[in-house]
Amino acid sequence: MTHLPHTNAQVILKSRPHGIPQSEHFEVVESALPALDAGQFLVRNAFLSVEPAMRGWVNAAANYSDPVAVGSVMRGFAAGVVVASRHEAYAPGDQVMGMLGWQHYAVSDGSTIRRKVLEPDLPLSLSLGILGINGVTAYFALTELGEPRAGNTVVVSTAAGSVGSAVGQIAKIAGCRTVGITGGAAKQRLCLDEFGYDEAVDYQRADFTQALAKACAGGVDIYYDNTSGPISDAVLPHINKGARIIVCGTAAVPTWEPWPTGPRVERHLLNKAARMQGFLVWDYEHRYEEAIARLATWVREGSVRYREDFLEGIDSAPDAIAGLYRGDNLGKRLIRLSSGVDDGAGISLSKTP
Questions:
Q1: CA 124 to CA 132: how far, in whole Å?
Q2: Cβ count within 10 A of residue 36
Q3: DSSP class per residue in 119-140
Q4: Model confidence over 254-278: pLDDT tens digits?
Q5: Is 336 helix (H, G, I), strand (E, B) or coil?
Q6: Domains in the chain, CATH or no CATH each
Q7: Most buried residue, 242, 269, 289, 350, by CB count within 10 Å?
């Protein structure tokens, strides 16, 4: 019989940040694990996801979700294995992904679970990246809002990131020409060599606007915007008539209080009869499996490649978001927990005597 632990390591939001959260805004604490009630089950988390959107989740400014309360467990996606259950739909050994929080163990009644992971031949960690919210975001935002057509030029900001890299590869599958915008020579090479972009432009270079203009000499049909700010200001003059602009993130804007000012987009949209639309992945939750099935097939075929960037252990969590905004990561940033869950496609549970 497996004896379950009595304590849990958790990452707590210690204080409210203004802008990008830093390590001092979090602390790792030990807490007691409650007994399971009827209809509940216990998940041992193997991987914690680090998302750019977490900046918005912890700030007090209005967002699409309520701010994480100070003193509570940091909101976050995690993937792991059910280790005990009093819920008829979840059995020990089931692999799950959901909003399980930054902690070693999570008690759930099923409402926090996004999906059971049904790809045993692929690493569980992918359920937080290319086969998770990031891949689903790339897939639906590009195919539904972007409406890619063969021969279109697609420009993607943060092109080496977990969403951007998927967007570029899905656009190539659709027959598009792709231009990636990223920061630094290493990420520029990653876009070209691993993710198959036709062009990659480094926004950190002094000649960025000239290089972008050259890469977009035929105009831009789809702009997948993960940054807003100066990068997007540089792209907009190049849009073609009927261009589709997808707003997926605003990573380049350090704070929305006070409201930032900058170049206006309206004239570009009007003169080119272009469309700008925001994307929220939650609007497509009822279609997740459709996207994941397609993405999993592409991963198995080698049509879509991915890169993962692992931090080790829960003590690395407090600085993880800040590091993401510093650009420390190459690929999808994850925190790997030393909880006895294998990081490969096969899952092994360590027994606590």
A1: 10
A2: 17
A3: -TTS-GGGGGTTTSHHHHHHHH
A4: 777 788 888 889 999 999 999 999 9
A5: strand
A6: 7-129+307-336 (3.90.180.10), 133-282 (3.40.50.720)
A7: 269
